[in-house]
Amino acid sequence: MTAPAGITTKDQAVVQKVIDCDVHPKLSSAEDLKPFLSAEWGAHLSTYGLRYRMGYQDGNPFPKAAPASSRRDTWPEQGLPGSDVGLLQSQLLDLYNMEFGIMNPLWPTGQGVLGDAFSAALCRATNLWQLELYNRPEPRLKCSICVPYENGDLARKEIEHYAGDQRFAQVLLLSRTAELLGQRRYWPIFAAAEAANLPVGIHVFGYSGHAITPTGWPSYYMEEMTEHAPSAQAMLSSMIFEGLFEAYPGTRIVLLEAGFAWLPALGWRLDRLWERMRSEVPHVKRPPSEYLRQHVWVATQPMEEPENRRQLVDVLDWIGHDRVVFSSDYPHWDFDDPRFSLPPHLSPELKRAILYENAKSLYGARG
Question: Of 305, 312, 308, 340, whose CA–CA distance to 326 is shortest?
């Protein structure tokens, strides 16, 4: 982070405009939401606090790589990294010539909180908090609609409430839900998103109530980080074979922080299984890989980095050069700098598409 925006470097592909699809604003605590809650729900929060389906309600199950999972230089004079709009402007939006960044608040937003009505009230408060503290002073910070995703009807109502609001760029879910996201109980979310012409961003983590791997809890943070890939695979398989994409053909999924090198292998395996056993799922009309290529976008952070650079190009060729968008993960410790994070062997055209054009096309007028 040494060159200000607009300064030309040797690599013209990274001094162009950038769109960042994963920026994390930060609540200091759920108390920050009280100004946006009714008196009734504010009292409920004071009395009962936030309750999830799983433990570690006041912390993480594994120690992160840095305090607050953040870069050392993103700590403001007061508050937590991601809580200071001025720093967001200077360290991210201005420095990298960003047209806009999409905010994905993670915790404590009300998503996954027990008590459906309470979860809905907290999500509404989070959406108002984004508008008031971030988008109003800095319109380049676009909001995500946080929804009480464990109740499909309440989530649908929240999406419909903001459907025509251009300050919101997408619907936001977390990947660890109580059941696989292709299940019909979640379909009202995708129906409302399709009707509102909104992509559905799915960020890793969440509060499923289950162990985070299919066979139990891991021992180390690195195991948690690598678990996101199989979790995303199960989620996408569920969406395909439950028939979600046939029911809502306008659905656009944006995977955030799940990696993507595993997508070709998933498509190959699902296609093979579908060829042999398609009679079990007559509602699935096309090879699964076609659904993946049509409905799924992937964000770059974290990007797999094979020793053989050509292998990454092969992966991008399979996914589709128009299906990859840039994400920095600011202010977290594994932040990706748009000037240096894309491999140098990618063509200038592909870099330009990833850094800007693909997200511009995906989010359209909301950007």
Answer: 340
